[in-house]
Amino acid sequence: DTGVSQNPRHKITKRGQNVTFRCDPISEHNRLYWYRQTLGQGPEFLTYFQNEAQLEKSRLLSDRFSAERPKGSFSTLEIQRTEQGDSAMYLCASSRTQGVSSPLHFGNGTRLTVT
Amino acid sequence: AQSVTQLGSHVSVSEGALVLLRCNYSSSVPPYLFWYVQYPNQGLQLLLKYTSAATLVKGINGFEAEFKKSETSFHLTKPSAHMSDAAEYFCAVSAGNAGKSTFGDGTTLTVKP
Fold first, then answer.
1. Tens digits of per-residue pLDDT, B9-21?
2. What is the distance between the alpha carbons of residues A48 and A63, in angstroms, rounded to a whole number?
3. SS3 of B48, please?
4. Interior CA angle at A45 toward A97 and B27, to 5°?
5. Distance between CA atoms of B9 and A88, rounded to whole angstroms?
6. I need a surface site. Which of A25, A38, B50, B93 has the fewest CB within 10 A?
């Protein structure tokens, strides 16, 4: 169990640029989640995958956001035409498929700053 | 629909004192409940979870939580605070088939020497 890995740890970009983040989940976990966390708030659900299928997307996920999980392994989250309001910590988590009782295993996050 | 309310965004205790962090939940189906801890610049780590097996749940680092259905609460306690307990704590509820969790806004615990 090497843990959930996220890259990069920090990303500074200018408004209007595109950014892409990567998440490598724990290898035997088939569920993968993306959350966004802003200062003073808890993580907010963005989307989740079971294997390669994206099964749910939050209304928070505008058309500028897209996530993929090819082959059910790593996942990428892309934000197009970034806005200052996109500045946040983006957290990835994975879990086994054991219904709702499986806890989430989080990575250390990618902190995005849009200038 | 599910939601979590954590009462008190900041809690300060002296080293050796009782820690009590409050969490109330709302869920239309029987919930599963979790407490996570987050240290600066790190992801969240699981402290403990309630999955209906027992109402009093023991977790890591001496923490425990009690599920009270009548009060829709899942408060986190530790008998004696240690300096290393200073962190942000999140309560989360999970219900339905997706396994996704809904988090509270967190409580920052400060431990004074």
1. 999 999 999 999 9
2. 16
3. strand
4. 75
5. 19
6. A38
How many beta carbons lie within 10 A of that of residue A109, not counting itself? Answer: 26
Q: Are residues B91 and B2 in contact, defined by beta-carbon separation less than 8 angstroms?
A: no
Q: Check CB contact under 8 Å for B104 and A108.
A: no
Strands (E), B19-86: 19-27, 32-38, 44-50, 56-58, 64-68, 73-78
The single-letter code of the amino acid at B86 is A
CB contacts of B51 in chain A (<8 Å) are: 101
Contact A15, A114 (CB under 8 A): yes
Greater model confidence, A66 or A61: A66
CA–CA separation, A76 and A66 (whole Å):
8
Compare all CA atoms of chain A with the CA of B53 and give the residue at the minimum distance.
A101
Q: Answer yes or no: is pLDDT of A99 > 70.
A: no
First vs last C-alpha separation in chain B: 41
Q: What's the rounded Cα separation, in Å, for the pair B65 and B77?
A: 6
**Cis bond before residue A43 (omega within 30° of 0):** no
Mean pLDDT over B69-84 rounds to: 96
